[in-house]
Task: structure prediction
Amino acid sequence: MSTATASADNGNGVMTLENLAKFPEGQKVYSCMQCGTCAATCPYGEDSEFPPRQIITMLQAGLIEEVFKSSSLLNCVACYACMAKCPRGIRLTEVLLPLVKEQVFAHMTDVPAELQKALQNTLRYGNPMGESPRKRALWTKTSPVPVPVLAEIKRPVDVLWFVECYTSYHPRGQDNSRATAKLFHAAGVDFAILGNEEKCAGECARLLGEKGLFDTLTDYNMKLLRKYPFKRIVTGAAHAYDAFKYQFPAVGFDFELHHTTPFFAQHLDKLKPRLTKKLNYAITYHDSCCLGRHNGFYDEPRALLQAIPGVKLVEMTHTGVNSICCGGGGGGMWLDTYYAAKGYERLSERRVKEALDTGADVLAVSCPYEISRFEDALKVQGGDKRMVVRDVVELLAEALED
Amino acid sequence: MVNIKGTEQPRIGVYICHCGHNIAGTIDVAAVAKYAEKLPGVVVSRDYKYMCSDPGQQLIQWDIKGHKLNRIVVASCSPLLHEHTFRNATEKGGINPFYFQMVNIREHNSWVHTDHAAATQKAKAQIHGAVRRVAGHRALETKRVPIHPDVLVVGAGIAGIHAALTLANAGKKVYLVEREPSIGGHMAKFDKTFPTLDCAACILTPKMSQVGNHPNITLWSYSEVVKMDGYVGNYKIAIKRKPRYVNEELCIGCQECVAHCVFKEPKFPDEFNEGLGKRRPVYIPFLQSTPQVVLIDPEVCLNFKRGAKNPDGSPVVSDKCKKTCVEACGENKAISFHQKEEIKEIQVGTVIVTTGFKTFDAKRVPYYGYGKYPNVYTALEVERLVNASGPTSGEVILRDGKKPKTIAIAHCVGSRDENTNRYCSRVCCMYSLKLAHLLKEHTDAEIYNFYIDIRTPGKGFEEFYQSVATEGVHFVRGKIADVYPEAGNTGKLIVQAEDTLLGRVRKLPVDMVVLSVGLEPQADAQDVRRMFNMSCGSEGFFLERHPKLAPVSTFTDGVFIAGACQAPKDIPDTVAQAGAAAAEAMALIDKGHVEQEPNTAFIIEEECSGCKSCIALCPYTAITFDEAKKKAVINEALCKGCGTCVASCPSGSIKQNLFEDEEIFSEIEGVLAQV
Ligand SMILES: Cc1cc2nc3c(=O)[nH]c(=O)nc-3n(C[C@H](O)[C@H](O)[C@H](O)COP(=O)(O)OP(=O)(O)OC[C@H]3O[C@@H](n4cnc5c(N)ncnc54)[C@H](O)[C@@H]3O)c2cc1C
Ligand code: SF4
Ligand code: SF4
Ligand code: SF4
Ligand code: SF4
Result:
């Protein structure tokens, strides 16, 4: 997919719903042929009064105010399904929906508390959980290998590893980070992290229409990145990857960028000889929205899993471009209570049901949001005895010779 | 400025066409005419509403006589459209038609610019260039070359069949080359055809057998064109005849060999039935195959060594089989395991390309589940399922052995989609309606057509839509976004789409999904395009010379196209185009000769050093080497005037009519002169 950004300025100012037609990506919105693919593929399509198709009709009919007043857009978990399948190639999730959401929130008097809290935390502490910024790098103390911090080592590095929030603070996220560190070592990569200086990349805030918050965080992180000499940037956080890839270029970001999964797939020749421990698991891989649909990395995670001795890969009904969102994107991470109150099925539960149907032992993921969401959903579905959730990097690290 | 050779001084007439508003709406034509008037050598300069009209052409003729003009410049549209018109007018005025130069101020100017002042300036510069160049034009002569009366038709679907028969019935000799073992193309696979529900076999078979028996048609099935050389009127063609391992002359089509093959049961996927049926190693594709000649598949026949190849690429005969087929063939002695590929060379004057289409590969849209769920079918497979001579004798039995009670038909699969093909495939709405009707007739199932728009813009089409709707077929306005198995192992599939008229997402459990796959260019369209010197449009279909006025011509003279290889189309349109292409070919043949543009290259013999560098470069193999004189020689009849050799000659000893150095340099000087 191309790298259009919602905030691109082409001399016509910043794109808004009013001046859409002045931007090529905006003009495309008007080519909608009302086919309903977006509504039919949307995981909450059935529950939404205004799926993308309807939003476009309302916009064209001059009735968009009605959409602003509805809470329908809160259902959008920014899963990129509508955008990936739209036969007119309209960049719904990237361009149109954030613009509408911005207005929806501006009109909303009762923003769900959980969500409001997460946004406030992100602004105040640089992470949505409200953890202390001074503890961001604390996890490195439990890392099996040394994790250098840029501010301390005072030398250029090859890879700047942008760790992100869940992977810094959440206990299961930290497992991911420890595994990643181990893999960097095994692949002989010279890397370092930003440590406590790092703040949330803010992609989910942006997809919620919180452009102001996103811009503040972008300013901060961009200045920080400029402080240190490094060759390329690698992150395991799929949403941060998206922010860097599609939004940061507008503020001058031009570093070589990788997500850990495809990055390690590129280093497979170095890693493979060291993946000697046999893992006799049947694994089913969940294509995350950002890594899969949005960026097209379908084969890389599977190639990594298949490189592990003993692993048997099985596929779920919905895979690849057709994968089902875990429900955590676009703010969905902090709307579980809200959705539950509305009586919606939790998407993470919908997903683990399919995973359980495969009979696999392991549900493999490659986006840090998914671990906790799927583990929780497995418990609710009573499947936590039959299946565990592991990040691809965790599985690789486990298979490494000691 | 180049001076006219000899004593004659240039007396130039300049004509600026308004082309209605097309040119005059952007360019100040009066100002341009006034400007041209002052250019050296110009005697008259006028602007006129439509130069191509009779009065416009008259104007040129009168001025030539009245003002003793000896050179003409017309600034108007593309030379492609009217160069011929104005050369004629120039000639009628009494001077050589090549004392003329055309300037394109429409396509190259008014149509592509919005700034009127700048466009006017540009027109002046363009005309200045032409005025300078035309002064140096020499008198040239159009050459005539005879045309070979035979025609090659490539691809024997309904388009190729119809074109070949039309020509053959008019007494022309036709070579019809088809790459499959039988002619018939896609139409041969259908049961009924929309909108009239004619039985496809009933209307196609008679034409197929006419082709097979026509004294004027040489039919080469299981063959492909591998090379084309030459030029309009005189094409040299090489055709590869693939081995059938059965002698076409000796086989009487009794199929005794098939019945007696050591394989008691048919075992291998049958291509003609889209893999839904099975065949033996020795087989005939379908009942009405033309020619009625069997063939042997060396990939699976026991008498060949599996996977082994001779140095020439042919399969290795193992002689391990009992060869009951040969026994059964008996006195006819038609089977020949040692048959080899053969190359035929022929000479024709014109070529008609009718290579048709392929259907969209439904696996490219993974969420329709084709290839993953057995009860998801492509429309072409369903054509075979409902066909009385198909693998199930017309009974609609699913891959899981059940008869469907609910069926979803997904329109626009691979069409109207930026992720696959942007264009509308034009026939699939209609064939979806046809299949809905036929499936209903065969199964009495509930049928749901999921569509974005129903497109029925043909004669009798809307009426057909209406009648299918009346039969109780359901129509859901929404594109299917997902197909997946129903929970609880029911064997059913859920199709998920938004019913956009209801504004609700529907999850419909069905037994069968039919994918109305779009039409695409053949996989080898680019190779075929190169072989016949054609162009392809952005979608990959062969490009016609003009979308309205030359729909079956190509940019190569004497090469025509017809049918679905040009764009998706139905049978009536295909047949109409095939007839048109045959008529175009006949128009050339019956004229007896073709006129050749004199813009050919020639070698100044004294200056040629005999280095031969031009010979290999000429794309039309028009240059040979005279060993006696040690000089290169250009065959005027073969030269297309591409200019490659002219630019490449290290000693500058090749020139080209109408593009001589002085002409080009003076044109450049004119264009760059201060306006
Ligand atoms: C499922 C389906 C149902 C349809 N139903 C109808 C209907 O009911 N009514 C209707 O009007 N239209 C129908 N159509 C459209 C119809 O199929 C086309 O209009 C028609 O087949 C076009 O004919 P053609 O000869 O141009 O191409 P084709 O039928 O594709 O024939 C092309 C021939 O050229 C041969 N060929 C290709 N490349 C080469 C080569 N390089 N060298 C030699 N030979 C070559 C092929 O083997 C083939 O025999 C349907 C189409 C589909 C897909
Ligand atoms: S999928 Fe695209 S074209 Fe279809 S209704 Fe939605 S936005 Fe419009
Ligand atoms: S991005 Fe996903 S959740 Fe949002 S509207 Fe599109 S399909 Fe629905
Ligand atoms: S050689 Fe044997 S396998 Fe081949 S067609 Fe004849 S009988 Fe069948
Ligand atoms: S003809 Fe109908 S089914 Fe085919 S692409 Fe066009 S609209 Fe879709």
